[in-house]
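Cont'd.
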Amino acid sequence: EVQLVQSGADVKKPGESLRISCKGSGYNFTSQWISWVRQMAGKGLEWMGKIDPSDSYIKYSPSFQGHVTISADKSISTAYLQWSSLKAADTAMYYCAREYGDDKWDYFDSWGQGTLVTVSS
Amino acid sequence: DIQMTQSPSSLSASVGDRVTITCRASQSINSYLNWYQQKPGKAPKLLIYAASSLQSGVPSRFSGSGSVTDFTLTISSLQPEDFATYYCHQSYTTPRTFGQGTKVEIK
């Protein structure tokens, strides 16, 4: 069974750094991209970017480029999303999702349970 | 970026009703259109991929249609567990984009 398990909720102060994680299991972690998706309270889904764990090639959404860093460690089947200096506006639920691709179609077939990040002074 | 516009933003329906949600892309996305269901406090769940292919394990009352720029998600007979928010999503190009969501509520 494909599973993505994310790190737990975190509360940080503005200006602090943070790295959240997403560990894959039940499949070859390097065979599919991992995306990160933001959902602010009561709002919709926003795609932040994705990483190919096989070579750590990354594509960012222009809306998030420069504000976050996506990385992965294929040796432990884990993808990361990190901030160097958090803002209150980063308060949101963050999901990782596996982007399954079958040589033609791509879709998010498995999702992590979400990590709630709260930034407050 | 490709903009995805869903309509309506919300709807009220009764158990047994036929429900239709539409999604329009700002440019052609072929059939690279997926639909997700999200319940409160839960991660989204894939329902339909490639515009009309039913994900394994998803009830057959869910169906998708459309191509190019106009797409539809249909629930043929609404069940109590279907009250949720539904999102369309294009995987034609990056950045990936989602519709704003359609909340299906109990009438």
